[in-house]
Task: structure prediction
Amino acid sequence: MKHVIGSLLVLALPATSAQAIVGGSEDQGPLSRSSVMVLSSNGGVCSAVVVAPDVVLTAAHCVTGAAEHRVHFRDETGEPVLIVPSAKAVNPGYDAKAIETRRRSIDLALVRVRDKLPGRFETAPLGVGQPRAGRDVVVGGYGLARIDEPKTTGTFRTADLKVVEPYGPSSILLWSRGTGAMGACQGDSGGPMAADGTVVAITSWSSAAKGKGCGDITQGILLGPQRRWIDQVLAGWNRTARWND
Result:
């Protein structure tokens, strides 16, 4: 594998954009073994889910709006590795101005790298289910452990949340909330939202708890309704996703 060690700044995006786990804990389980980071030349930090040996799934806003992007992880010695993507596909339903204009957006993108990721990474099982209010959901990512402290990014953490439906049931979005200030924040966009051991959504946005910059509702894009698009893109790259029907 050709490693590209770059000089991208590891800073956080605004809270309205990329989203990190506050109130969670370090996790070295299955979700961590199928997650990497995506860094942007404008200082953006995001998370991503491995869906094929050389393909990751992330939020579309994590790979748009900047001149360059890199898939990032640390090698066996702890040294940073930054890999230039060889291809990317942004969901045609993505709207970069969705938040400010209150329009619907399918905030998903697939990113391919030229060579396979190291063998320690596993492809994540993807779920087509749509958890309803009250169900457990695990949110994971490499973002902030403490609000407004960019240096706390880079460690994979998870938080156990509950599915909520603040605006009624949705066939596109998944919302979740924890106890107290807990959930996604800067750096966790593109990370997994998992239920029953499968990744059912990709984190796209979070809202602020009272008096905090993050920690209220964590929102993700459900993968089941986007399965056709995911499978079509991967088929074009001669790859397949691991779906748990």
Observations:
- The chain has three helices and 16 strands.
- The chain has two domains: 30-123+226-244, 126-224.
- The CA atoms of residues 47 and 191 lie 5 Å apart.
- The domain at 30-123+226-244 is CATH 2.40.10.10 (Thrombin, subunit H).
